C-alpha cells in the first residue's frame, strides 16, 4: 500500500467515526436529588472509573463506553441512595453508516463515543426520620408522581420506536 492509499484510509477512518467527532468520549451528567440539596455523590462504571460530585444538584463529566454508571449519593440525615443507569447508542453513531459505510462504528465503539448516558440522573434520597406522617406522605407522593412520569416517558419512547420500526419496514 502506498502513502496516498494509506493517507486516504486514515482519513476515511477518522472522518467516518461520527460519534467520536460529534459527541466525544466524555459526557456531562447532571445529578439531582429532589428535595435534598447538598448530597455528595460518587459515580462509578464497570471498568472502575470513578467520579465525585461534592454537592447536588450539579454536573460532572464521565467517560462513556463503560456502562452501566452507578450513582451513590449520601447526606447526613438521609439514607444512602443509589441508581444504576445504562448507556444507549448515540445518535451520531448512525451517521457512520451513511457517511463512512460503517467503518467508523468500530472506532466509535472502541472509544465509547457510540454510547451515551442520560443527561440527567435523579436519585431519590429518603430521610431517616420524617417530622410528621404528613411530611412522609408528601415525600412518598412526590416520588410516586415522579415514577409515574418516568414510566409514561418510557412508554412514549417505546411507542415512538415501534412507530419508527413500522415506518422502516413499509
Plain-language structure description:
- The protein is an alpha+beta fold and 170 residues long.
- It is 42% helix and 24% strand.
- It is built from five helices and nine strands; from the N terminus they run H-H-E-E-E-E-E-E-E-H-H-E-E-H.
- It has a four-stranded antiparallel sheet, with no helix packed on it. The protein has a three-stranded mixed sheet with strand order 4-1-9, with no helix packed on it. Strands 7-8 form a two-stranded antiparallel ribbon.
- The chain is flat and about 70 Å long.
Short description:
The chain has 170 residues and is of the alpha+beta class. It has helices at residues 3-16, 18-22, 95-100, 103-111, 133-169, and strands at residues 26-32, 40-44, 50-53, 58-63, 69-74, 81-85, 88-89, 115-116, 120-122. Strand 5 and strand 6 (81-85) form a beta hairpin.
Number of helices: 5
Rg (C-alpha, Å): 21 Å
Poorly predicted segments:
7-22, 90-99, 103-113
Terminal CA distance: 43 Å
Strand content: 15-25%
Class derived from helix and strand content: alpha+beta
Main-sheet strand order equals: 3-2-5-6
Supply the number of structural domains: 2
Secondary-structure element series: HHEEEEEEEHHEEH
Look at the structure and give the CATH class of the largest domain. Mainly Beta
What is the 3D form?
Answer: flat
**Biggest pleated-sheet summary:** 4 strands, antiparallel
CATH topology of the largest domain: Immunoglobulin-like
Q: Using DSSP, what is the number of strands?
A: 9
User: What CATH architecture label of the largest domain applies?
Assistant: Sandwich
Q: pLDDT average, as an integer?
A: 79
What is the helical fraction, as a range of percent? 40-55%
Amino acid at each position: 500500500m502506498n502513502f496516498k492509499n494509506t493517507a486516504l484510509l486514515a482519513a476515511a477512518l477518522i472522518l467516518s467515526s461520527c460519534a467520536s467527532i460529534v459527541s466525544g468520549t466524555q459526557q456531562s451528567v447532571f445529578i439531582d436529588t429532589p428535595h435534598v440539596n447538598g448530597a455528595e455523590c460518587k459515580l462509578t462504571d464497570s471498568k472502575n472509573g470513578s467520579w465525585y460530585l461534592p454537592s447536588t444538584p450539579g454536573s460532572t463529566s464521565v467517560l462513556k463506553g463503560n456502562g452501566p454508571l452507578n450513582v451513590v449519593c449520601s447526606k447526613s440525615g438521609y439514607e444512602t441512595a443509589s441508581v444504576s443507569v445504562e448507556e444507549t447508542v448515540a445518535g451520531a453513531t448512525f451517521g457512520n453508516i451513511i457517511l463512512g459505510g460503517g467503518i467508523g462504528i468500530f472506532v466509535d465503539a472502541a472509544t465509547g463515543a457510540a454510547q451515551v448516558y442520560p443527561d440527567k440522573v435523579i436519585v431519590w434520597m429518603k430521610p431517616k426520620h420524617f417530622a410528621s406522617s404528613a411530611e412522609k406522605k408528601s415525600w412518598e407522593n412526590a416520588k410516586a408522581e415522579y415514577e409515574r412520569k418516568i414510566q409514561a416517558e418510557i412508554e412514549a419512547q417505546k411507542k415512538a420506536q415501534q412507530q419508527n420500526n413500522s415506518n422502516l419496514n413499509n
